[in-house]
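User: ok so my PI wants both of these folded by tonight, can you help

Assistant: No problem, let's get them done. Here's the first:
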Amino acid sequence: MTTDHTPLAALEQGTPFAARHIGPDAADQAKMLAHIGFGSLDELTAAAVPEAIRTSEALLLPEARDEAGVLAELRALASRNTVLHSMIGLGYHGTFTPPVILRNVMENPSWYTAYTPYQPEISQGRLEALLNFQTVVADLTGLPTAGASLLDEGTAAAEAMALARRVGKVRNGVFLVDADCLPQTIAVVRTRAEPTGVPVVVADLSEGIPAEVAERGVFGVLIQYPGASGAVRDPRALIEEAHALGAVVTVAADLLALTLLTSPGDLGADIAVGSSQRFGVPMGFGGPHAGFMSVRDAYARSLPGRLVGVSRDAAGAPAYRLALQTREQHIRRERATSNICTAQVLLAVMAGMYAVYHGPEGLTGIARRVHRYAALVAAGLRDGGVELVHEAFFDTVTARVPGGAAAVVAAARDMGVNLRLTDDDHVGISCDELTGRAQLAAVWAAFGVAGDAFGIEMLDARTPDALPEGLLRTDEFLSHPVFHRYRSETAMLRYLRRLADKDYALDRGMIPLGSCTMKLNAAVEMEPVTWPEFAALHPFVPADQAEGYLALIRELEERLAEITGYDSVSLQPNAGSQGELAGLLAVRAYHRAAGRPERTVCLIPSSAHGTNAASAVMAGMRVVVVATGENGDVDADDLRAKIEKHRDELAVLMVTYPSTHGVFEEDIAGICAAVHDAGGQVYVDGANLNALVGLARPGRFGADVSHLNLHKTFCIPHGGGGPGVGPVAVRAHLAPYLPGHPLRPSPADGTTGAVSAAPWGSAGILPISWAYLRLMGASGLRRATQVAVLGANYVAKRLEPHFPVLYTGPGGLVAHECVIDVRPLTRATGVTIDDVAKRLIDHGFHAPTMSFPVAGTFMIEPTESEDLAELDRFCDAMIAIRREIDRVGSGEWPKEDNPLVNAPHTAAQLSGGWDHPYSREEAVFPAGGGQAEGQGGAGKYWPPVRRIDGAFGDRNLVCSCPPVADYAG
């Protein structure tokens, strides 16, 4: 017998999760360090990160646990949530996600690790899925142009308000909101309106527009259809009256109800908004869910957010792309009317596929069943002597019980059903796809009505529908073959697989996008998202039913505060853009509370991300641009001159750190001090936090507020362009001004109003970041940051002899990303940044970020998740492309016919004629990458289309599935 053995305690620990998350192992890290001239990660950190900002204290976080231990902790948290049958309504409904969609979209890394489809040739699958979503929205709302999703219903309504103000005839006037709109929507609209001076009037519009409001002028009207109370009213007369006043009319609609009711477009609406949540997307305690907007033709080119359109590729074949990309309004900076950058692509894909799977007949059947249950609830209550507020409704009934509402809601809760406590005298009851006979019996019993579940057939036989005859839908919808072809699970499964096979996502290889941090989203982090205890909770349940969620939220807020050095964090913003807005609104409120309303100037470096300027304008601030020096740093002289010039009106400086150019600026602490000396606040954009975690804390080196991107640094997946979470973190003096919410009042709530429809935004995906922090611990997080900085410097050093690295800090080092310059090569050879990006597809790569922050450059961010083999494969591909550029420059290949200008190359090209000056093999298996492991032979990624003609798609805008006649032709 051997006496030597490994201690049990060491065996119990297993492999630390950080070693799974971080790509390069110790040996590879040593090779990378040697290549750039350092002996250790700590030595690199000391050289790259300015001493003035480095923290010497270890983060006070719980010790890292293994995957099994973290899942056990999450199970314990989940068990503290009580999942009752929700009949609360208010825009959130129980739904059944078809397992084929749950498993093959929501839980499939081919879909959830993809990036925004800015490279359309390698995004044809998700673009087609989004076109399906747009078609669903356009058909059901009766308005021809629909976007590829917005953040939620509340922000969609706020975007509609901004759109109405921009395109309408009335230059001033008020935005008029019907009192029967969802309360959270009204709150978000008010929050968005106040800083820009838009008056919002909430009034009962059931009898038309009040005369005193009409006298003030009305530029826009918002109606809920059906109303929050459940009432279904005919809004045609109201819409005509609003149009007569010159107003633009927005209808917030329920997509499921629209399978039975006349569409907003046919009613005369100009804009329709809403949420697609009940199309197979779990409630998730409030999100993420895909909001939607559709508009009439006249407003198509003013639509906020993203729009998928049909164009053609180099061979003339149909191909999809993001159309009219100038509508990505952050590109317009301070001229923007919206700061929308993230969408909710993954959830829009799910909702669109729900419609594909069920088809128009299936959706209508679900809607009829939901309505029948509501009609029977109402009939049983009437039989029992309960007064109902409305006779016409779709899925929601409001009952009047003077002084007894709380007792009814409590009795229903005891029987496993959550009803809506509207006020002391009224109870709301909403039916959904999951409602059954047992719930009807429980509701009747809660009201003290002697209902009998076995007598429902008799009740059903004598109860008419409760939809107004004059509002019944008569036109067809979803007539395209895609909504009729995939009824069996076999067909649906193969359709989803075909679409996924067309796309490039992290499950195929590296996505080296600077500023976007495309890193590993571990399966163990993703798993809890679909547990019913997290997925099936309504956002407005009583707090004692969400104890597990609230504990998780509180712990995540505390840990994010510790990591960033701030005092308080709000998780409500459901995108980085919303986090920016929330942070600036807090700054604005702070100055106003201190009696300094004149402080409205926001200083922003010229290199900053465009959402910064857009958010500042939306927060009621005036943008003043600060110059950026040749080295990429903020021009200190210009900054100090602007501070002095605007000293008495300076509200805030917005700065990204490390800089947008991927450099640790040496004087950030001095910059913060100069702004504070002038009475301003400092906003550090958290987009590049992946270079700081465990090394430096913005709240400790001078910043007052930051937003964080959980979908970047903290592992929430990008999902093809959303979901995102953008918490806002602040120092103590700004904490009173964090976002609040009308349906979650508490002493901890802020005073600046709601920025998202749900109290904690996209709460359903917060377990991902909670798990990441718990798995990594303080030392794992620090090591991840160090390896991210190592990877960027390794790539920069390997590529520098071939492409100039545009910006570096002391010692020639970069932060977690680097910018390489293609412009000199373009001037010499005619090969453009687009040509290089498309040629990378032939090598099996997604291109880095193009032309940001400088036109004609690539910004490359390898992240800590990519191992050395993948980093080398990418560098080899870039070096091989440089050799090809030289062949063009030497005249060996013509400028108009070479592998770069013709890239990407499809499999179909190999079977046809070939008259190019390079071989088929050079086209599709380029040297230095095409034959590498996983990318050669059967493992090669084949783009489904050739290079896409964007201008043609913009000139000939097609943004929904073509009609059947076109399809047949």
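One down. Here's the second:
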Amino acid sequence: MSLAGKLLTGIFILCFPLSVFGWDWQTRVTVIVKDQPIEAVCALLEKEYGIHFSYSRELVSLSRKVTLTAHNQRLKKLLEDLFAPDDIRFTRVGDQLVLSHARRNTHTISGYIKDAVSGETLIGATVYAPGLKQGTTTNQYGFFSLTTVRDSNSLVISYIGYRPYLQPVSLKGDQLLNINLQPLGSLREVVISGKEKTKLQEQTQMSKITLSSTELQAMPQLLGEVDVMRTLQSLPGVSGGMDGAGGLYVRGGSPDQNLVLMDGTPVFNFSHFFGVYSLLNANVVKTTDLYKGAFPARFGGRLSSVVDIAMKEGDMKAYHGDVSIGLIAAKFNIEGPIIKDKTSFIVSARRSYPDLLLNAALKSDNTLGTGGDFKAFFYDINAKVNHIFSPKDRLFLSFYKGEDNLLVKQTTIDSTGAGNPAGFNLQSTKFQMGWGNTIAALRWNHIYGPRLFSNITLNYSQYSFFTQYEHRYQLPGTGELSNVYGKYSSRMENSGGRIDFDYRPNPQHAVRFGAITTMHYFKPGNSSFQDKGSPVKPLDTLPSSMRITGAELSMYAEDDWQLGSNLFTNIGVHASAFLVEGRFYYSLQPRLGLRYVLPRNWAVKASYTHMNQYIHLLSSNGTTLPTDIWVPSTQRVAPMFSKQVAAGVAKTSANGKYEFTLEGYYKSMHNMIENKENNTILTPLPARWDENVAVGKGWSYGSEVMLQKKKGSTTGWIGYTLSWSTRRFPGINNDKIYPYKYDQRHELELVLMQRLGKHWELSASWHYNSGTPITLPVSSYAGIDNPSPWDPSVGHTSIDRYENWNNYRSADVHRLDIGITHTKQKKRWSRSWNVSIFNVYNRKNPFVYTINDDPDTHKRYLIQATILPILPSVTYAIKF
């Protein structure tokens, strides 16, 4: 061959692809990719180096994204690093690389994550295997399970307010671990450097907000304490309604559509003191989960929201507690071991005492002829015992009792004695009202194996209220004493049990399933009347048909499922049935949640939820009060059900400093009930309550946006809600759609917590919402019923003319609350002073409206009643 031929051959060899001459394990390759799936790396190797890959997509997934920077690296080393995390085995067959799974034995790490100081289990702690890029979180009992295929590994465990912990693991078999996390030394450390919980874009669940105990304690402290319900009311999509209503109105729903669970047991009234305080002491709350939509299949029975409150279990290692005394209420909390590291307890109690101050002022007025008594207070008691039988078995017993009481008594003595031989007339009037909850639960946790966890719960819940009045007076001329007495009461009770299973077969699946059974007992309205001067016994006016018992049975299954590298889903179904008065209702409720991760770690989420509700709250058309009556579905009134769709975006910043969510929703509600008239507790009940209600439909839709700052000396959030809520009932408003009483167009929340040095913390919240719809007459005219011949105005009645329901709106509601706390750490205890002001600028927000007639001008005026003015408070607390 000539020299020119040899030169051409050499040039041809240099330019010809490597695949002509083949490749071996020592072939040097250069690959630079950023956030690309493994499949793209294989395509690059095939294009640049002629390495062909053969595999089954059903058996081998190359969707995991990787970032590689390899310069002149040996091919075998690159492939090992690329495929090892997914346990993909590669074998050369001819000129191809055949890919398959290694088929190595799997191992499961499971156990509990605890507070190292107190032994409390931690809910929602993150357990992550960095080498495998796999992770999970602890369930509501602090249990986790993570299945992996690596021979050795380490876990990173983190939880907000605690120091991250690296747990080395040697996977020679399944392991059951108890991992203890050290809490950070102060709240300041928590705010600035606390390890964040799972980021929003990493959660398939949408429309959910979680408050841990640490986060809750950092919230604004008003009237001397942090309040769970008040904090929830300051979130987008959630409203407390008018001041004094004391309810939760979530996405256009009514208060009865909220499922409030305390250690898995339902609560039917969750406020004290007309909504100023919630039903429980925040110091005994471990975590609070609020679901506004996208409800997991394990929850059922309500349409609008789920508030899942987990209570603390008690310190397993040492005794400690706290005591606080304020101008309005006092409370204490104590916890500790009964048997160290085996049995613990926690007890807390609160009592308000404005009645003691006001009653003392009334009694100080000893003017002849008058006297009075006033009481308005609440109290609650929490108790819980936690016992560890073995590493696989735990038992919890919890109890709650809380009541509100109002008493007004007035006595008048007329010393003139006109027409009375005794020389004086006596009149005494007494009015009393009370309501409260009683709750008890027994739970057993059991670990069947490293992947299967169960909880069995037996619970009891009761809500009751009563009103009673007594009027004593002396009959003119005779001096005989007459005593008229009346009472009205209502009660509902639930007792039942449930079993829940948590199964984690592999990191791509988290399966939950279980069953719930509940017996409902309703006694919706019992009134009696008696004249104690008469021999006739008091008459019980509750018809026997109003005493109703219902049985409810539910089953559910759900799966958190990773479908691909960027696509995740939560799919489930909740099936339930209700037997009442010989009528059998049933419902199949599908649940679906989707999450897709976009570039720059933005997550797009969507959900569909079907919910069913077998109980109703029978209230007046005005505001919601504790005297509203709980009633079941009957033969005439079918269960309520709703369908809700939602979509949105979510992101947590890379440093965990900021969180942003934007959601839109649309919800339709069916078989809603409404009183045909403005009934109150003084309105006589018909033979059956369902004879005086209309059954109709409702709709609510809107959008919510929230920006939250979670780290630094300044924290807080801004939330805004734009929403509509409408209803339509046959026979009401001419069968036309009208805005419902919970329709609030705009709602804005500003919450701020500011650290001032080591000892001071300032907190403030400002709330605004549009006025709520009310029904007012458009005109009125005077009747001519039996006018007096001496005064033509006497005996005339005003007849109102109405056109549409909820045709006006109340005044807008807004309020500023501020508080400042000074804390000082002593050697063995700490003390704090809190000064707070509720309704700083004394905004007269409406509670109820009435129409009054002026007898002089014969004109009518709209009167607004306000019950919560400015309320300053000073609280002193000791923690030991």
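DSSP finds seven helices and 53 strands in the chain. The helical segments are 3-15, 38-49, 75-83, 187-193, 213-217, 228-233, 354-364. Good luck tonight!
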